[in-house]
Design brief:
The complex is a heterodimer. Chain A is an alpha+beta fold. Chain A contains 2 helices and 6 strands; from the N terminus they run βαββββαβ. The radius of gyration of chain A is 16 Å and the shape is elongated. Chain B is mostly helical. The chains are: A alpha+beta, B mainly alpha. Chains A and B meet through helix 1, strand 2 and strand 3 of A and helix 14 of B.
Chain lengths: 114, 440
């Protein structure tokens, strides 16, 4: 089992979700985060261009069984590539080993509970 | 040819004639004070509408959507001063398509003009300007979240000149043809046909012509901030007293009648909406309550001058029932009238303008009968109302389609796909509405 954490652009959330659902991955946690990568964005404040030091991003957390890791990562990559994928700052995907998963309601453990 | 010559002669001599009739009426300070207040109240509705619409769209579009209302304040005011007031309230030209009066160009000739009711003409002109602002701002609800800022600006400018001004002239100018239809004219006290039906129908046409938002309807799109929507609806209700009671253009009995009807219809509409929702969905939503307020207010707008409290209550309730059904039908049909500009304003306006005939107070009908020379029945007035509604629907619908088509040749009205996904705030304005939620 793996935990996939992806940091993506806010505006790409919809298309990434659609792509994931198409790939059969619908269980997902989404949160709004701020951070700084290589991207530099400009905003305008009273006629002056400013570059905020922390920009808002979206963080996805998806727990998957091992054979779904590639499917999930590819779905995210393809969805972000389809739209301004060439620009710096499309985000990152982190894949971590996942020790245990427990479904609270039933107490199921492991792959069953994902 | 000769006719045209005399027309021009008349237009140029008109200001002179006015100068010679030198006995200007005295200022009625009471009426003037109320009209000043009303003018400010109607302006308050526009930030109210911005909040109402802004709260209903997704987080990434909140500023862009609020800017639709605020941009209308800028564009429509300037256009109104340049040509709008003249087109709406000048004397008939081009066979009555719209009006014109050289005095009204840049409002240059009304500096010291006082109208018959003892109100400075500046106030009447500014009061009417607010109606010209809010009408295109209402349309923006139909195609929210997917329109380019530049395209929207050109669209409302053209729409204001070519649709709003002529309609306003027909319905409210003393020589407009709907004003003089039947015995006492088509009843449109404060803008049921001019404002709500025209905005609603134009919104419907524009929403269908532009197409649905990306991933509508299979991804749910949740309101960014319903608290702001509630505040906006509250401001709209308060402002509506200026909108309706101010439309009496005086401060007296008819003002009080309109104000009472407005309060009652809004309350009835809101209550009926949550009752229907309670039976249908099992819960009374906040959005439902404010939608009911709006449905009631829209329906009473054309009728506020002629109905009594019972009629106001009935119209508010009826409008809510029909608007509720219209929105259910919209969801079945699947077109993307995002914030229900047609479902509430179009449908509510039509309900108000048609069904008001059954609740007209007797003194009005007696007046109409004496003007018509003996008798004037509810059914005759129903014919007049239906004709006025039909004309407004047809003119606004067809005109909007043509404007969309032509403006789109110069500047695309539909937002780019990237802009739509990134959000109007960032893409068109370089800002974000809810920045403070992120630590930065």
């Amino acid at each position: 089992m793996k935990l996939i954490i992806a940091i993506i652009r806010e505006n790409q959330l919809d298309q990434v979700r659609e792509s994931l659902i198409e790939a059969g991955v619908s269980r997902i946690t989404v949160s709004h985060v701020s951070g700084h990568g290589r991207r530099q964005t400009e905003e305008i404040y009273r006629g002056q261009k400013i570059i905020p030091n922390l920009v808002p991003n979206v963080r996805l957390e998806i727990a998957v069984n091992d054979d779904f890791v590639d499917v999930t990562c590819n779905a995210i990559i393809n969805a972000t590539k389809a739209n301004e994928g060439g620009l710096i700052g499309s985000g990152k995907i982190f894949v971590q080993p996942l020790e245990e998963v427990i479904r609270i309601r039933t107490g199921e453990r492991g792959s069953e509970a994902i | 040819m000769k006719k045209v010559f005399y027309l021009f002669l008349f237009l140029f001599l008109l200001p002179l004639a006015q100068l010679q009739a030198a006995d200007t009426p005295e200022i009625d300070t009471g009426a003037t004070a109320w009209m000043l207040t009303s003018t400010a109240l109607v302006l308050l509705m526009i930030p109210g509408l911005a909040m109402f619409y802004g709260g209903l769209v997704r987080t990434k579009n909140v500023l862009g959507t609020m800017m639709h209302s605020f941009a209308a304040m800028g564009i429509m005011t300037v256009l109104w001063v340049i040509c709008g007031y003249s087109m709406a309230f000048g004397s008939n030209i081009l066979g009555g398509w719209f009006g014109w009066n050289p005095d009204y160009f840049l409002l240059s000739g009304i500096d010291e003009s006082i109208m018959e009711g003892g109100i400075p003409e500046y106030i009447f002109s500014m009061f009417q300007a607010k109606f010209a602002i809010i009408t295109p701002a209402l349309i923006a609800g139909a195609f929210a979240e997917r329109v380019s800022f530049k395209g929207y600006c050109f669209f409302i400018a053209a729409w204001g000149i070519l649709i709003y001004n002529p309609l306003c002239h027909w319905v409210w100018a003393s020589d407009g043809f709907l004003f003089n239809l039947g015995a006492k004219g088509a009843i449109d006290f404060a803008g049921g046909t001019v404002v709500h039906i025209s905005a609603g129908v134009s919104g419907l046409v524009a929403a269908i012509w532009l197409g649905a938002r990306k991933s509508h309807p299979h991804l749910p799109m949740r309101p960014s901030n319903l608290v702001m929507t509630m505040i906006g609806a509250g401001l709209l209700w308060v402002g509506w007293f200026g909108f309706n009671a101010g439309s009496s253009i005086t401060s007296g009995l008819s003002t009080a009648q309109a104000l009472t009807a407005t309060q009652i219809a809004a309350a009835a509409g809101a209550l009926v909406w949550v009752i229907i929702e309670g039976f249908h969905q099992g819960k009374a939503t906040a959005l439902g309550f404010v939608s009911g307020i709006l449905a009631g207010l829209v329906a009473i707008t054309p009728a506020a001058g002629v109905v009594q409290p019972v009629g106001a209550m009935a119209l508010g309730a009826l409008a809510t029932i029909i608007c509720y059904l219209a929105i259910m039908l919209k969801n079945k049909l699947g077109y993307d009238d995002t914030l229900d500009a047609f479902g509430i304003h179009g449908v509510g306006g039509i309900v108000g303008a048609i069904f008001l005939v059954f609740f007209i107070r007797e003194s009005w009908m007696a007046d109409a009968a004496s003007i018509a020379g003996g008798s004037w029945s509810v059914w005759q007035q129903l014919g007049v109302q239906s004709l006025a509604v039909l004309i407004a629907i047809t003119y606004a619908g067809v005109g909007t389609l043509i404007i969309l088509f032509v403006v789109n040749k110069f500047t695309p009205i539909r937002s780019s796909e990237e802009g739509e996904m990134r959000g109007l705030d960032n893409h068109y304005h370089g800002e974000r509405g809810y920045g403070m939620i992120n630590p930065n």
